[in-house]
Design brief:
- Helices cover 25% and strands 25% of the residues.
- The protein is an alpha/beta fold and 369 residues long.
- The protein has 2 domains: 4-147 and 334-368, Quinone Oxidoreductase, Chain A, domain 1; 165-306, 3-Layer(aba) Sandwich (Rossmann fold).
- Strands 3, 5, 6, 7, 8, 15 and 16 form a 7-stranded mixed β-sheet that branches.
- Helix 4 (161-172) packs across helix 5 (187-198).
- The radius of gyration is 20 Å and the shape is globular.
- Bound molecules: zinc ion (2 copies).
- Residues 41, 43, 61-62, 160 line the site of one zinc ion.
- Residues 96-97, 100, 102-103, 111, 113 line the site of one zinc ion.
Amino acid sequence: MAEKGRAAVLVADRKFEIREFPTPEVDPEGILVSVTGGGVCGSDLHIWRGEINMHNFILGHELVGRVHSLGKNVSTDYLQKPLKEGDRVIFSYWTPCHRCYQCIRGEYTDCLYNFQGFKSIEEYPYCHGGFADYYYLQPGTFVFKVESDLSDEVLTSVNCAAGTVMEGIERSNIQGGDAVVFQGAGGLGMYGMTYARERGAGVIIAIDGQQPRLDLALQCGADYAININEFPNPEDRVAKVKELVGGGRTGADTVVEVVGYPGVVPEGLDMLRPGGKYIEIGCIWPNAMATIDMEKVLHGIRHIVPVSFYRPQLLPTAIEMLERTKDKYPLTKLMSHTFSLEDINKAFETSEWSGQDRKTAVTRAVIKP
Ligand SMILES: [Zn+2]
Ligand SMILES: [Zn+2]
């Protein structure tokens, strides 16, 4: 435990402090990662605002890094590729217990203990968050060697934004030509649109309140963009979606909620055709209340599908997609701003979108320790 690393601790709402922590002894099956980039995710913003109380935590869960030290029993990644110190890796930011009813069924996303890595700074091994020099991969964390030369900026969002929204698209089971609506054109929305496009979707519609994001969405797979400032009434947004989906549909086949605001759920359900799927991803904090007419859900045959976490194979799938489509979509532009660890407070203030109308889109800020 000779070494020490810096980490940004959330000490109060909207306030980080940089502190030093000893690096942990690495378990025989664990890996200590040297962080090379951590993205500011919408979830981090919810916590930073105080919507989820996590004072004295090191935030940051979407990140990429290099192997700093390997546990003595670890010699490969989860695809049997040899691992050594210095290798660049991506990994799930959650760790299933591998010892519960859900896990033995292979339903890792539903493991009750997935959040065991989210601990306060008082708890060993301290390196629980990505806005830090080091991040600890507990035994059982899915880890994959990165052989691509994609930049760290591109890779930071793979283990949260990309993986999660790709899981949503998988669970929607979209068919070739399907009409898909994204409520929200931030990082998740952008990755979702490109994945839906690559997965064979037909009409893709992006809804957001920031025009620069919508402009980027149109380059990331979306066919149409609806700016809520031009369509302030939910009824008008629903009507516009129904007009755009085409193909004899009365609504979208899939609507993906990636705004993180429960107020959009009723209109999202109204945008669906009978039998359509509503993929719920964004409302991650407690008491995210929405008033839903369940009769409309029942007789409208709307399927509400929750998505938290992702099947681990989507991580290498995401890298493959990013590599293959790097000249097709400007996904490399998603990481729009870079900050040092010392400037983390500024990074969050710059990323805050709630209640703001921006001229330049901050789709994702990345912290480079
Ligand atoms: Zn996230
Ligand atoms: Zn489990």
